[in-house]
Each structure stands twice: as structure tokens, then as C-alpha cells.
Amino acid sequence: MTETLDLQLPDVGAAIDTDNVSDWALEQFQTTYGPEITKDDIWEYLYGIMHSPHWRMDYRHDLQRNLPRIPLADDFEAFRSAGRKLMDLHVGYETVDEYPVQCLVDGEPDDGEADASAYRIEGRMRWDKRPDGNDDPAVLIVNSRCRLVDIPPETVRYTVSGRTPLQWAIDSLRVKHDKASGIVDDPNGWRDWADEPFNLIRHLRRLVRVSYESALIIAWLPTSRPGESRLYEPGPVTLADIIESQGKGPPLNDPTGIIYTDEEFETHLASLPYEHPSDS
């Protein structure tokens, strides 16, 4: 008979959900934006604010040593709506719709018809090279037979801790050998795509979707600085114009061609295929 140790832990009762937005904070937001603001709204607003290029620039030094300061921006709903969509994207990154980047196997378009070996990682994935020798983020080489092409340029605009989601995939999804133990970490044997290798391609396409949509949403954020007008004038603008105006780099050489007015962008946000829990 196996002996067990009675830890005699106290009965703490049933688990209780506790939110981390204080009543004082709720009062400040309701005073500024109206009594209909809820604590869930504040969480979504915070997530939007923390993706603001202005906020990250203004508090880049404070974030290294202090708690973040949260401004009461002029446009609460813009940040709340963007934060909600970003939450849905980032939490549900494994189930979002795939971005339709083309998969080539042996130089031919493929959507899962090739043999299993065509989608397996051989050592490590890598970017293709441009004529000047620099990485080409439009082409991801999965292995000697398979590559993803025409990856939209906006994907390089969204990074997590300095790397894009696809770069994180390149760095983490690779065959690793531990010399001391002899253990081999082979992502090809992971549950998600061991029996269905094309799921790796689906996973990479979803990361493209997360990057692309995140970059688009962030590019359309207004300024987080209270009292300042939006950085772009109402009316038709391209994604490249917005990125340039927010100081995130030069205009894209090959913008998407998507043109939105403010009203069209609100329609775009509402049409994104990510369901919020409160909507179900």
C-alpha cells in the first residue's frame, strides 16, 4: 500500500474571480468617458494603448524601471476597439483564419497534396535572400522542397520582443541536438503536425494573419497623447501613408493598395473574423 502525506491544507473555499481594475480606476474612466464604461472596456483599452507607437515612445525609459503610466486618450473607443481585436488575434493565434500566402512544393502551387516529407523541417527554416544578400521576408524557405511566397510586407511591422511571429517560428521550430544527453528535439514529431505535416504550413499562415492584421490595426491607432489630434487627416489614405506618419519607417515600396477612410476602417474592424467571448 502506498503511503501518502496529509498536508492538512486549510479550506480556502471556492475560487473567486477577482478583477485587477480598481474601483478608483473605474471611477476615473467613467468620469472622463461616461458612466457606461466597464472594467472589461478598460482592459481592452489598456491593451490597445500598450500597442500605441506613441505610448511606447513616450514611456520607453519608464517601462524599464517603473509601472506603466496610462494616459486618458482623446479617443477611448478607438483604443478599446483596437485592443479587443488585438486580444482576439493574440490569444487565438492558433485558430485564426489562415492568411492565403502561396505554398510552393518543388516549384508548383500546393495546398497539402504533396507527400508528408514535403512539409517537414530539415534542420531549420530560413528566409530567402535578395540580390543584395539581405534576407527577403516575402519568402520563407521551409525546407529544400517547400517555401511560402508573397508574404505581405506589413508582417515585418509587427514584432514581439524585437522579432516578428514568423521569426520566432524560425528560431523555435528547428531540429535541436543536445550533445550531452543525446536528446533530439524534433518539431516534426510534435502532436499538432506529426500525423498531419501540412498543419505546419497552416500554422505559419496563421502567424502571417496575426502579423498582418496586428500591423494594420496598430497603424490605424490615433495618438495616445491627450489633447493631440490624430496624426492623419480624415479621408482616403494608404497603409503606407499611415505607417510613415506614425514614425514606424519609410513608406512601403509595395503597399497593399487597400485604401480606407475612417468610416471604412471601422467597418473593417467589425468585419475581422475574430469573435469576442461576450459576443457568443
Classify the helix fraction into a percent range: 25-40%
Q: Any idea what the shape is?
A: globular
What is the percentage of strand-forming residues?
5-15%
Strand order of the largest sheet: 2-1-5-4-3
Number of helices: 9
Number of strands: 9
**Helix-strand topology string:** HHHHEEEEEHEEHHEHEH
Count of structural domains: 2
**Rg measurement, Å:** 23 Å
| N-to-C span | 49 Å
What value does the average pLDDT take? 78
Helix-strand makeup class? alpha+beta
Q: In terms of per-residue confidence, which ranges show pLDDT below 50 for 5 or more consecutive residues?
A: 229-262, 272-280
Query: Which sheet architecture does the biggest sheet show?
Result: 5 strands, antiparallel
Provide an overview of this structure:
- With 280 residues, this protein is α+β, with helices and mostly antiparallel strands.
- The chain folds into two domains: 34-95 and 215-279, no CATH class; 102-199, no CATH class.
- 34% of the residues lie in helices and 10% in strands.
- The protein has a five-stranded antiparallel β-sheet, with no helix packed on it. Strands 6-7 form a two-stranded antiparallel sheet. A two-stranded antiparallel sheet has the order 8-9.
- A hairpin with a 5-residue loop joins strand 3 (126-129) and strand 4.
- Helix 2 crosses helix 4 and helix 4 runs antiparallel to helix 7.
- The chain is globular and about 60 Å long.
- The model is unreliable at 229-262 and 272-280 (pLDDT under 50).
